[in-house]
Specification:
This protein has helices at about 5-20, 40-45, 60-75, 120-125, 155-165, 180-190, 200-205, 210-220, 220-230, 260-270, and strands at about 30-35, 50-55, 80, 100-105, 115, 135-140, 165-175, 195-200, 235-240, 245-250, 275, 285. By secondary structure, it is an alpha/beta fold. The strands form three sheets. The chain has a seven-stranded mixed β-sheet, sandwiched between helices. It has a three-stranded antiparallel β-sheet with strand order 10-11-12, with no helix packed on it. Helix 2 runs antiparallel to helix 8. It starts with a helix and ends with a strand.
Length: about 290
């Protein structure tokens, strides 16, 4: 806690910022979990200028890099051609000079993307409400090869339930990895979850029926480019969020209807009732 002149300075600085703060009129719809150096964020930004996209990264230095790069690109307001980085694993932030800019203006000016430092394995439902997202990307997650470390993988039965919570029905989880064992692990756990089904192979593979976002995911991430340079394979799987079934009233023993007496009256009348979820935390009974 600060006192004296330092506290006054902080207070005045806060007051100055408060007058310029803006409230978002839209919600984040796409999340890139473990976004790395932000390749997918920067590729999706001009393709979906009206959609808010959030990258979540657990490594502090990497998250700060992406945040700084977003600031630079917003200041430039145009697309860039960054020079090759001396360390291909750690891209450089492009300089704001004429040599790094193209003549075309990027739709949205990168105002629709952001990055936060976060541990989504612990706090994902703290960032998004129920059915908020329409797409989640899990690009080249840590494979954690040792069996005793498998519990740290980003895909598991419990984590898949959290993905199902924040995804709206019809939304998709996009996964890609260069480790076949991890690919099979993710497929097995998503297909074994009641809230997900795998999309058709036509949507995953190259061709006319391929989902456009699959193509972007395969080409634009830093890890994906490295795999391509090394001649490796990329394993893709996409899963669709299934609509939740109605809740049988009998399982709730009438409490959702207000009382056991209300339930007994409906049972006595012979009405077949189900409980439907309206997506807002409340339920309604249909005869």
């Amino acid at each position: 806690m600060f006192t004296g002149e330092k506290a006054k300075g902080n207070a005045s600085q806060h007051d100055g910022r408060k007058g310029t703060s803006r409230r978002l009129d839209r919600e984040v719809e796409i999340a890139d979990i473990g976004c790395g150096y932000g390749g997918l964020l920067f590729a999706l930004a001009p393709k979906m200028p009206e959609t808010l996209i959030l990258g979540l990264e657990i490594r502090i230095s990497v998250a700060e890099f992406v945040q700084e790069k977003i600031k630079v690109l917003r200041q430039q307001g145009t697309s860039f051609r960054s020079p090759p980085s001396p360390n291909e694993d750690t891209p450089e932030i492009p300089e704001a000079d004429a040599s790094s800019l193209s003549s075309s203006t990027v739709p949205g000016g990168y105002q629709n993307i952001a990055c936060l430092r976060a541990n989504t394995m612990k706090f994902l439902p703290n960032f998004f409400h129920r059915h908020q997202l329409r797409a989640i990307f899990l690009c080249f997650p840590d494979p954690h090869f040792k069996a005793r470390k498998h519990k740290a993988r980003i895909v598991s039965s419990s984590l898949n339930s959290e993905y199902a919570y924040v995804l709206r029905p019809g939304g998709k989880v996009y996964t890609i990895t260069d480790v076949e064992d991890l690919h099979e692990w993710m497929v097995e756990r998503f297909e074994g979850h009641a809230s997900f089904e795998r999309v058709s192979r036509e949507e995953e593979e190259e061709g006319e029926g391929q989902d456009e976002l699959v193509g972007v995911m395969k080409r634009e991430t830093e890890e994906g480019k490295k795999v391509e340079r090394n001649g490796g394979k990329k394993f893709v799987a996409v899963f669709r969020r299934i609509e939740d079934p109605p809740w049988p009233a009998r399982r709730l023993r009438g409490k959702a209807l207000g009382s056991d007496d209300a339930f007994a009256r409906r049972e006595g009348s012979g009405e077949d009732s189900t409980i439907k979820d309206d997506g807002k935390g409340s339920v309604a009974a249909d005869a």
